[in-house]
Amino acid sequence: MTRTTPLTELDHRYSDPGATPAPWEEGVRLLEAAELYWLSTVREDGRPHVTPLIGVWRAGAMHFTTGPQERKARNLAQNPQVVLVTGTNALSQGCDIVVEGEAVAVTDEDTLRSLAEAYEAKYGKNWHFDVRDGAFYGQGDDRAEVYAVTPWKAFGFGKGEPFGQTRWSFA
Predict the structure, then answer these.
(1) Given 34, 44, 54, 169, which is the most exposed site by the fewest CB atoms within 10 A?
(2) What is the pLDDT of residues 24-82, one digit of tens each?
(3) How confident is the model at residue 139 (pLDDT cuts 50, 70, 90)?
(4) Phi/psi of residue 21, each to 5°?
(5) What is the second-level CATH architecture of the domain 23-158?
(6) pTM for the full model?
(7) Where are the domains of the chain?
(8) 74 — phi, psi (to 5°)?
């Protein structure tokens, strides 16, 4: 059973003495606001694959797209477990968010229409998608599969004063 409100813990081994655990709402705010994410999948031979992508947070899950023949789609077909990361490249400010979960295909067309609207609202007209046949279709009529990652576990790495590592457990 997956909970919607996670167990929240501060890892004192990697946190300053004055640090407190970040609330999950702060993690969600950062996931919603980020423009770019990094997705890690696993190749059939066990080697990792990492790629930048755009996405939207909706209904308790991170959503992203991929073409059916892209490396990440082929990886997900044989192993749906992923890690999705966003944050800053600064050491002394901001917060990095790491989400662990399983990528599940989204094919319900009402849900896809809502997600297509969310993509366009977040990224602009160049990211308009039509919905049909259980997928997104972009410019040039290219098909994009849509996936949702509902967190099993997530981490927040607060940087600066104070440094802190929060773990959110959903399982």
Answers:
(1) 44
(2) 999 999 999 999 999 999 999 999 999 999 999 999 999 999 999 999 999 999 999 99
(3) confident
(4) -65, 140
(5) Roll (2.30)
(6) 0.94
(7) 23-158
(8) -65, -40
